[in-house]
Write a structure and sequence with these properties.
The protein is of the alpha+beta class and about 675 residues long. The protein folds into 5 domains: about 5-250, 3-Layer(aba) Sandwich (Rossmann fold); about 260-355, Beta Barrel (Elongation Factor Tu (Ef-tu), domain 3); about 370-440, Alpha-Beta Plaits (2-Layer Sandwich), CATH 3.30.70.870; about 450-555 and about 650-665, Ribosomal Protein S5, domain 2; about 560-635, 2-Layer Sandwich (Alpha-Beta Plaits), CATH 3.30.70. The protein is about 25% helix and about 30% strand. The strands form 7 sheets. The protein has an 8-stranded antiparallel sheet. It starts with a strand and ends in a 7-residue tail after the last helix.
């Protein structure tokens, strides 16, 4: 009989009890001898020193347990919004998620985003309503909130005694009570259950079990259980529900060898470690595997020439391990449906696939909108290459850091999502690389988009031997559209392999526009181009395309886009006026507040540039009584009168002569 695997992610807003729940599940299943404490820094999955010091998770951690004949691979994720990239990548590896919601605080903003991302990924989930022992616990209110967020039906699988008290108890719903709950929950999504409900009958236990499992797997039904992770209440009921009702790894199985690298870490003795979820096939020590990058981000229409396929990178596996936090054991093999850590893949990056590419979609949880300059603390220029290499390695682990440095520059830039992430990076640089770094105050990451419709052209026919002509049509599109690429020319006008070069080069052009920002929200169509059968060199279109791109932006003009945040403030009603005043000062737009029992909830859209210090201002004006949550909302045309320019890396293609020399390797940029 083949082994049954459940790959689960523990997801929630910060301080909801994710790591504590993970610890209790590991203790219940016998994977660890004693349940550790987050406050004491003794949990199995918080192994970094910074996690133990701060009492929060900052990196995804994996652990494996056995429960009633099922191998449960647990992926414990950070809850703080600064590290939501870890959650985003973990979702791609899961069979389903365990989403934790506090019975006291209810559904927080980040939890809403997680649920939306699970919807986009078509991934089942089970809700664990935690902290039912605390004063103010209100599970009925939380259930109402959940129903207001999700279109899925909810099935309660446990019942509570003495809610909000220290002596609270949880028991599983079974027998006729289970049949009643299941029939009612399924009635809205299943004809068989609806017929039974209308006839005032109950589904049989066997049929209820079958339908519940099927509808959960189809993402139509969400089971809900209650408990208190801190006091190990409801943990066994949760574990039983997982193996009884939730889908196993067969749901995402592929016929061919296929896996996704959802986490990268580096070890001094083992080198790069790639944590892989395998959907199909099997990998053993000494096997040679192929690595594939995920598909490009821009939308490419079928009328465009495909990019020339590069042969996949092939690398040999040296070791395969199973991790439980920082502890590991050698397994020598990873089977279909399992999760393991593979050593010996130096080219691997987070998000890459092994064997073949699988389709995995999820809503983005992270949009870094701040950029920071990084320099050695002692300003020693000789340390810059080592610092750049270290940040490059950390970018392998967290791609959203996106460290950028051109050889010869005196500073490195990285993207960041907040102050806590910078503190963690500073700690990792010191602890792992013995490097001390200074971070500049964060600056906003703007974007730009073509200001109107127009052509982008360039002719590169001198100095010989060369011949490349590129002609694009740029058309602006609505905010949030992204970039799409269209157009195929006759091969006798421009060989298809050269059109592939144009498309490849176009993708890289998007990184820096007229003002040095990423270019987005437009449609590009290749409408003209030509090669010369004698004079064209294979690399000529990589020289010509950036010139055409920048010529187009220069002619059409480029509009700066600024990032926005959606904020939600919960505060005493009498503070509403002061908060509205702050929102207006920031240039924000707000809705009518919702007031209940003297507490006002306000939602607003504000620019990132004017709201960076808002959390501190809010804490001061409310004397700590206001609760703030904020999430990335999108981009809009910049409304201030300032000129926002990002220094360009490398040579600007608008400086034609320098660019040609630089692109041909005959000139070094400063």
């Amino acid at each position: 009989m083949s082994e049954i695997f459940h790959n689960i992610g523990i997801l929630a807003h910060v301080d909801s009890g994710k790591t504590t729940l993970t610890e209790q599940l590991l203790y219940l299943t016998g994977a660890i001898r004693n349940a550790g404490s987050v406050d004491a820094g003794t949990t199995a999955t918080d192994s970094l020193s910074v996690e133990k010091q701060r009492g929060i998770s900052v990196r995804t951690a994996t652990a494996s347990a056995q429960w009633k004949g099922v191998t449960v691979n647990i992926i414990d994720t950070p809850g703080h919004i600064d590290f939501a990239g870890e959650v985003e990548r973990a979702i791609s590896a899961l069979d389903y998620a365990v989403v934790i919601v506090s019975a006291v605080e209810g559904v927080r903003a980040h939890t809403e985003n997680i649920l939306k991302s699970l919807d986009a990924a078509k991934l089942p989930r089970i809700i664990f309503i935690n902290k039912i022992d605390r004063t103010g616990a209100d599970t009925s209110k939380v259930l109402d909130e959940l129903k207001g967020i999700s279109s899925q039906s909810h099935l309660v699988l446990s019942q509570i005694e003495n809610e909000g008290e220290e002596n609270t108890r949880v028991t599983a719903v079974d027998g006729d009570a289970f049949r009643q709950n299941a029939t009612e929950a399924l009635a809205d999504i299943c004809d068989e259950a609806a017929d039974a409900f209308l006839c005032e009958e109950l589904l049989s236990t066997e049929r209820a079990n079958e339908l519940v499992k099927s509808e959960i797997s189809a993402c139509n039904l969400t089971p809900v259980v209650f408990g208190s992770a801190k006091y190990s209440i409801g943990i066994e009921e949760l574990a039983d529900a997982l193996v009884k009702f939730m889908p196993d790894s067969e749901r995402r199985k592929t016929e061919d060898l296929c896996g996704i690298i959802f986490k990268i870490e580096h070890d001094k003795s083992l080198g790069k470690i790639s944590h892989i979820r395998l959907f199909g096939g099997e990998i053993a020590n000494r096997d040679e595997v192929e690595l594939f990058a995920p598909e490009e981000k821009i939308t490419v229409q079928s009328d465009a020439v495909e990019i020339e396929a590069k042969p996949p990178v092939k690398e040999k596996v040296s070791q395969i391990k199973k991790f439980c936090g920082a502890k590991s054991t050698d397994t020598g093999i990873i089977k279909s449906g399992d999760v393991a850590a593979v050593c010996g893949l130096p080219s691997a990056k987070t998000g890459h696939f092994v064997g073949s590419v699988a389709v995995s979609e999820a809503a983005k949880l992270v949009n870094p909108f701040l950029r920071v300059k990084v320099t050695p603390s002692d300003s020693d220029p000789l340390k810059i290459p080592a610092l750049a290499a270290a940040l490059g390695e950390l970018s392998d682990e967290e791609p959203y850091i996106d460290a950028k440095w051109e050889n010869g520059q005196k500073e490195i830039t990285i993207s960041t999502t907040g102050k806590i992430q910078l503190e963690v990076l500073s700690n990792l640089l010191k602890e792992r690389y013995d490097l001390s770094a200074e971070f500049s105050p964060p600056t906003v990451i703007y974007k730009e988009t073509p200001s109107g419709k127009g052509f982008a052209r360039a002719r590169y026919t001198m100095p010989k031997p060369c011949w490349a002509v590129v002609d694009f049509l740029f058309e602006p599109m609505p905010r949030g559209y992204g970039v799409s690429y269209h157009g195929r020319l006759p091969s006798n006008q421009c060989f298809y392999r050269y059109q592939s070069h144009i498309r490849t080069s176009f993708n890289s052009c998007l990184e820096q526009g007229l003002y040095g920002w990423e270019v987005t929200d437009f449609k590009c169509t290749l409408v003209g181009g030509e090669h010369h059968t004698i004079h064209t060199h294979p690399l000529d279109f990589f020289v010509c395309t950036p010139m055409a791109f920048m010529n187009g932006l220069s002619e059409i003009g480029s509009t700066i886009l600024e990032p926005l945040l959606k904020i939600r403030v919960t505060a005493p009603e009498e503070l509403s006026g002061k908060i509205f005043s702050e929102i207006i000062k920031m240039g924000g737009e707000y809705d009518t507040p919702v007031i209940r029992s003297g507490i006002a909830t306000l939602e607003a859209i504000v620019p990132v540039a004017t709201s960076m210090n808002f959390p501190e201002r809010l804490a001061t004006l409310s004397s700590g009584k206001a609760v703030l949550s904020q999430n990335f909302y999108g981009y809009r045309e910049c409304r201030d009168s300032e000129e926002h320019i990002n220094p360009r890396r490398g040579v600007n293609p608008l400086d034609r002569s320098k660019w040609i020399l630089w692109a041909r390797g005959a000139y070094q940029s400063e």
